[in-house]
Amino acid sequence: MSGSLNILVLIKQVPDTSSKAGLNPDGTIDRAKAKRMLNPFDRFALQAALHSKKVTNGKVTALSMGPPPAVEILLEAIEHGVDKGFLLSDRRLAASDTLATAYALHKVIQHLGPFDLIFTGLQTTDGDTAQVGPQIAERLNLPQVTYCEDFSIEGGKLHARRIVEGGHQTVVSEFPALVTVANAYHHLEYKTIRGARLVQELQRNEELKAQYIQTITLDDVGADPELCGLKGSPTIVAHTDKVGQIGGRCVMHQGKSIEMLVNEIAAGTNIKEFVRQ
Amino acid sequence: MTEEAKTPPVVPINANQPIGEVLVFAEQILGQLQPVGLELLGAGRDLANKLERPLTAIVLGHNLGDIPKTLIAYGADKVYVADHPDLEQYRTLPYRRVICNWLEQMPVEPHTMLLGSTTTGRDLAPRIAAHFKTGLTADTTELDVGDYEHKGGADPSKIGLYANCLYAIRPSFGESLKARILGPWKNPQMATTRPGVMIPLKPDWERQGEIVQIPVELDPTDYRLVVKETFQEVKKGVNLADADVIVSGGYGMANAEGFELLRQLADCFENAAVGASRKAVDVGWIPYIHQIGQTGKTVRPKVYIACGISGAIQHRVGMQNADLIIAVNKDPDAPIFKFAHHGIVGDVYQVVPEMIRQLKQNQSATTKEVSSVV
How far apart are the first and last CA of chain A? Predict the structure, then answer.
């Protein structure tokens, strides 16, 4: 059994693409109208952090970066049992790529830390890069366990199972370490009644809320604005191409009985050649 | 002054900067070279030819045997080999140390570095990118080099024309657009690509190349994480790469049971597998190994039957090269009908059972014919 751990979980608010709100007919997204949600992968990171808190009698801090509405996901984290939330929110962070994001977040982590364990989701559903976690680990010179799907804390070390190409791997890491959690992680911790009551209370009482959730800027953590946002990003999206139409024009089959539609496909294509005999 | 002198041709800002090589990280697992490295050499060869620079590969491991020669046969001009017992299995910190040390001592850093977007590549690439504070684009679907005119932005000193930039091209989030991502300000310009996306060259076993042993100097801190065991698992019935027919389901399948129906349809074919769109995987109806698309597998079957899949660009890039695409969707305006060859507008829960019925009928009809001949 280890002593109580000081745990950090990184979470992000992303557009909810499963909701119709903000979704244009052509499949593009109107970010202003889109519903917002906690990045689905971060839910697993949150669970992993809360599990570590429980087994080590530790403390969990949640950190997010984004515009002010991202406070919503910090409240959600508190509902689940996180002890404290921080939102790094600063206009100078706009258009940050993964390198600039990792720079800014590592400055906050240095300011709030030290932490024994840092959890992140494997990736976000809006960026899909899976880069920010390892880039923070590099900045902080930490060992990392990516694609983690299960773990235990024994003898002051992290014993983890991670996904590798075509299988699994078991690893043992010293603390401190950074862990990116895959969506196969399954030790679910539920919202607590205590958490739900607390959040209700926080929504009524701004003063109390400020004790649990703090919004901070680059200046608060001594981050260099030149290394953030567009200026600090080595990559830019230079050009977007409309995707050209490919293949032949689609032969549409509709407005007849299902039997006839399927028959047209069977007659009009070569799929029968592949049927099991 | 002549007229010409007044309007000089635009000189790229980076015209005097030396251009480095194109470097590919070749991944091995338990001594087996992974195909993605060979695919990246195929893409890298084209970039290296355009830049008129060598294509190099770097491979780490222990007792690597013929791997360096194989990399040369598939297009590498030079192979950097780090052979050490402690590199036998991939671990972030030792691999990162050896690669970063090697790149740091190069007189000119590589222009481009490509890695597979595998569990290893996605673990390693961001560490290297953060170490060199350079740009990294994930899951690219196309790579190219060309000019770029930077017209504005936060830093006026960057405005101007840049030559020989890596174009890292990937679908952009939530849009039917492809984004061209550039980072000409810092080398190496880095990108990862999913296995199956790029095409390897035909191997030329007569091809000559240079093999360079590189130093391995690890630090005690590189041993903070140890690998206990690696398990390779045999996957049953998920051979998407070799299947002639792929029956694939999306969010329109509505539940996990829907995929059981798709399995029944797949069973009607001789060599078929079940695929899925990302949304169906995200909600847990089917495991990730079935996922087709930008963040899943790229497939080229003879027949692709898309059931309840809307056809977002992220899915399309993973299956658009199928010989025949048949789409079933109840929404006649679904984007999938813009690039499928045949489309059925209808409810998957009516169409798929009818397909199964007709294919089975066909099957028994053929069997009867055969038996009557015999």
Answer: 60
Q: CB-CB: which of B130, B270, B326 is closest to A99?
A: B130
**Predicted local confidence at residue B30, as pLDDT:** 84
Q: In this complex, is the C-beta atom of B300 within 8 Å of any C-beta atom belonging to chain A?
A: no
CA distance A198 to B153: 44
| pLDDT of res. B6 | 59
Of the candidates A17, A170, A238, the beta carbon closest to that of B182 is on A238
Which of the four CATH numbers 1.20.1250.20, 3.40.50.1000, 3.40.50.620, 3.30.70.870 does domain A6-227 have? 3.40.50.620
User: Quick check: B174 and A27 CB within 8 A?
Assistant: yes
Cβ-Cβ contacts under 8 Å, A252 against chain B: 332, 337, 343, 345
- Contact indicator for B308, B253 with CB cutoff of 8 Å: yes
Indicate left, alpha or beta for B284 from its phi (over 0: left) and psi (-120 to 50: alpha). Answer: left
Under CATH, domain B16-223 is a member of which superfamily?
HUPs (3.40.50.620)
CB pair distance less than 8 Å for B126 and A130: yes
Name every chain B residue with its beta carbon within 8 A of the beta carbon of A138.
Answer: 96, 126-127, 130-131
* pLDDT per position as a tens digit, B300-358: 899 999 999 999 888 988 898 888 999 999 999 898 998 899 999 999 999 999 999 99
Residue A245: per-residue pLDDT: 47
Residues of chain B short of pLDDT 70, as ranges, are 1-8, 154, 173-176, 234-238, 363-374
Interface contact flag, A250 B342, Cβ < 8 Å? yes
Flag if A97 and B135 touch (Cβ within 8 Å): yes
CATH, domain range B245-367: 3.40.50.1220
DSSP H helices, B89-176, are: 92-104, 121-132
Tens digit of pLDDT for each residue in A81-99? Answer: 999 999 999 999 998 999 9
Q: Say whether residue B183 is in contact with chain A using an 8 A CB cutoff.
A: yes
Q: Which amino acid is at A53?
A: K
Test the A interface: residue of B224, B233, B314, B351 with most A CBs within 10 Å: B224
Flag residues of chain A having pLDDT under 70.
Answer: 1-2, 17-31, 184-190, 241-248
- How close is the nearest chain A Cα to the Cα of B129, in Å? 8
Instruction: Please report the pLDDT score of residue B276 as a whole number.
Output: 95
| CB-based contacts of B6, cutoff 8 Å, min separation 6 | none
Please tell me the predicted confidence (pLDDT) of residue B58.
98
Residue B372 confidence (pLDDT): 42
Q: Is B328 on the interface with A (CB under 8 A)?
A: no
CB atoms A144 and B123 under 8 Å: yes
CB atoms under 10 Å from CB of B363, counted, come to 16
Q: Where are the domains of chain A?
A: 6-227
Alpha-carbon distance of A210 to B345, in angstroms, equals 54
pLDDT at residue B246, rounded to an integer: 96
Start-end ranges of CATH 3.40.50.1220 in chain B?
245-367
B225 to A276: CB separation less than 8 angstroms, yes or no:
no
pLDDT number for residue B235: 56
Residues of B with Cβ-Cβ distance to A145 under 8 angstroms: 225
Beta strands in chain A (DSSP E): 6-11, 13-15, 36-38, 59-65, 84-88, 117-121, 144-154, 157-164, 167-173, 177-181, 213-216, 236-242, 251-253
Q: What is the pLDDT of residue B374?
A: 37
Tell me the pLDDT tens digit for each residue of A188-218. 666 778 888 999 999 999 999 999 999 999 9
All CATH 3.40.50.620 domain ranges of chain B, comma separated, are 16-223
The answer to whether the Cβ–Cβ distance between A276 and B269 falls below 8 Å is: yes
Calculate the dihedral angle through the C-alpha atoms of B360, B361, B364, B369, rounding to the nearest 10 degrees. -140
